[in-house]
Design goal:
Helix content: 25-40%
Oligomer: single chain
Strand content: 5-15%
Strand order of the largest sheet: 1-6-7-8-9-10
Radius of gyration: 20 Å
Shape: globular
Length: 317
């Protein structure tokens, strides 16, 4: 994926023997404490910059990101990406199939990232995919790339080691869908027969028709990442309970975990959460905003006034 400018600033990699050996040290340390790890495979597509990679980013069509992008030299205006050729698409599918390195590095499996305005999502969305070949135009053609990537990864390491991340209706990184409720049923028609490890829905709202449709149609494990009304103990707990009540098998939480290394324990005890200090610390590298948030003291702190019934920690990731 490097040769097509997929890498962003300060993003970890897994495409050399050295990377594999380094990640194995991490996965072994996690396993030694009873944990398990999946590796998320992503290609950022047009969410890239020559100042980071030395390459012009690629995308389904030559439509630039409408926002600035973080580079080693700070935020810069996005550049017009190069439209991927048929050969580019084939080689990128093969790049994702290199997921076998993740297994060699000790990961339990991988998550194919087709969400949040990254490359696979760019193929799904009509405003970023203006192609007229077999990968653009109709819904059936726009879902083809994600389906082929997922199938290639499943063939490489086994479907039971593969999850897929989707963000229906999301406008992150400038993507726009005007056909969400038909797009995702068409997309999932192929992978739902593979018996994948799980499906991960980002910013999932149990009240939407698309969520209810996917939950009813998806035969396997579904991980729901709920929309949060706030980052308090009560708001996070309520959102997680609502997600489970709407049929999710597991709940995934992002920002609360970034700021709270002991999030599950805090939710169980009903104590206040650390606030996220600055969202711009999340994607710029360095320890600030990643490894420097405090954990609870030995006394566990005081119960929060907005606490609720304790969550089942085994279902929160």
């Amino acid at each position: 994926m490097r040769r097509l400018g997929a890498v962003g600033s300060n993003i970890t990699a897994l495409h050399t023997d050295r990377h594999t050996a380094g990640w194995r040290r991490v996965t072994e340390a996690v396993r030694a404490t009873g944990g398990r790890m999946f590796l998320q495979l992503q290609h950022r597509g047009r969410v890239g910059h020559p100042a980071t990679t030395g390459l012009t980013p690629v995308a389904p069509s030559a439509v630039p990101l409408p926002e600035t992008i973080f580079t080693p030299g700070g935020h810069r205006a996005a550049v017009v990406p190069r439209e991927m050729t048929a050969a580019d698409i084939r080689s990128t599918v093969d790049d994702f199939a290199a997921a076998r390195r993740a297994v060699e590095a000790g990961f339990e499996g991988v998550e194919v990232h087709s969400a949040n305005g990254h490359l696979l999502h760019q193929f799904l969305a009509g405003n970023t995919n203006r192609r007229t070949d077999g990968y653009g135009g109709s819904v059936e053609r726009r879902v083809r790339f994600t389906a082929e990537v997922t199938e290639a990864v499943a063939d490489a390491i086994g479907a039971d080691r593969v999850g897929v991340r989707l963000s229906p209706g999301s406008t992150v990184n400038g993507v726009e869908e005007d056909d969400t409720e038909v797009l995702y049923p068409a997309l999932l028609a192929r992978p739902k027969g593979l018996d994948l490890a799980y499906l991960h829905l980002v910013h999932a709202d149990p009240g939407t028709q698309w969520y209810r449709g996917i939950r009813a149609d998806w035969p396997g494990v579904l991980i729901g990442n709920p929309v949060l009304s706030g980052l308090t103990t009560g708001a996070v707990t309520r959102a997680a309970h609502d997600m489970l009540a709407a049929g999710a098998d597991l709940v995934a939480l992002g920002r609360p975990f970034l700021a709270n290394p002991d999030l599950v324990d805090r939710l169980r005890r009903g104590v206040p959460l650390n606030p996220v200090r600055d969202r711009y610390l999340m994607y710029v590298g360095g320890a600030d905003g990643y490894t420097d948030y405090p954990a609870l003291g030995a006394d566990g702190g005081q119960p929060s006034s907005d606490s609720m019934v304790a969550l089942d920690g085994a279902r929160v990731a």
